[in-house]
Every structure is written in structure tokens, then in C-alpha cells.
Amino acid sequence: MLQAAAAMTTKRLGLSAVLALGSLFALGCASDQKHAPTADEVANGDALPAAPPVPPNPASTDSPATASAPVVEAAAAAPTTSGAGGGAATSPDKETLTEAQIAQFADFANGGEIEQGKLAQGKAKAPGVKKFADMMVKHHTEAQQEQAKLFKKLNLTPADSASSAALKSDADKTTAALKEASAADFDRTYVTAQVDEHQKVLDAIDNKLIPAARNPELTAGLRKMRTTVEAHLSQAKTLQAQVK
Q1: What is the pLDDT of residues 217-233, one digit of tens each?
Q2: Residue 94 has what DSSP assignment?
Q3: What is the CATH number of the domain that holds 189?
Q4: Cα angle vertex 166, ends 165, 171, to 5°?
């Protein structure tokens, strides 16, 4: 009898434990349901779904090409002129001239040759160099006068540019060097400078002046200038081989 009673008690205790565990499991499910509302509860406004976690540094949705495009455009639009504000100076090699700036360049090219030619008329020793200097003064004076009339007709007021500034700076340095040159070195120094200067002007006419000109009369004037400069360059090279 005692053994039977003990067995009965054990069964009752086991059933109670099972019921207790079942209650705890039911409570756990109910607790989880509070964190995972049903679709009806969300639709009725009885519960709101938990907000998704936000990453501390959300990744950009822009593609690399899209993100970098404004930078490229800004760089392309950035001014390249120099000034007190510290902007980058325009490179003469990459500069596109206006027709007014073409007029300034042509005027400076003639002016430098006239000044150096007059200096050579007084200091040159070799007859061939003196004759070349005379031709430089004559041809470039005529060209300068003719171009001035054309610029006036076309209503072009010569304007500064990096290209004309570089041309004038080089011409001024050459003139200063010629003034300092000794009598024995003058002829060679002058003729060498003429080869260098005429080559630079010829390159500028071909690569910058003629391509930038839009007016037919201005283009024709530049082509005439090119013919003269090319002839002078050829003569200067011949003379250079003769002057020691």
C-alpha cells in the first residue's frame, strides 16, 4: 500500500512539473509574440514592427562614375588665368587665342624683329648679317604697318595673352643679350637668335594663330605673314651656317 501511494504521488508531482513547464513555455511564446506582432495587428495599428537597425556609416548608393563626375566638371570649369587671387597661370602652349589676342601677338612679333634688326644694323660686322638686318627692319616695319590697317578695318583692339607676353619676354631677353654681346660674338648671337625666334613665330602661326582666326581677311593676312616668316627662317639658317 505504501509503495502504491508513493508511486501515485510521484506521478502527480511529474504531471505538475510537466504542467509548470508547459505554462512557462506558453508564457515565453506570448512574450515573443509581443516582439513579433501579426500582420493584422500592424494593419490595425495595434502594434508597430520594430525598426530595422541603422548601420553607423551607411554606404553610398552612388556609383563611382556618378560620384566623380561633378569633380571632373568642376576641374574643367575652373579658371586658368593668373591674378592676385592666386589662380593657376594659363600655359601659352594650351591657350586658345581670340582674334584681338592674335593682333597683339602679330604686333609683338614684328616689333621685336624691328628692334633687334636696328641694333644689328649698327653692331654687325659681316656684310651678309648687315644685309639681313636691313631686310628685317624693312619687311617687319611694312608688315606691322599693313597689319595695323587691317586690325583697324576689322575693329580689332590688340589684347594681352600669355602667348604674346611670353613672346615679348623672350624678345626683350634677346635684345638685352645682343646689347651686351661683344663685337666678336655679336653676328653669331644675332643670327642664332633670328633662327630661334622665326621658328617659334612660325610654329605659333601654324598651331595657334591661323586655327583661331575666324575672319577671312585676318586669316589671309596671317597666311601672308607666314610666307614672309618662313622665308626669313630659311635665310637665317643659311646665314647661320656661314657665320662663325
Answers
A1: 999 999 999 999 999 99
A2: G
A3: 1.20.1260.10
A4: 100
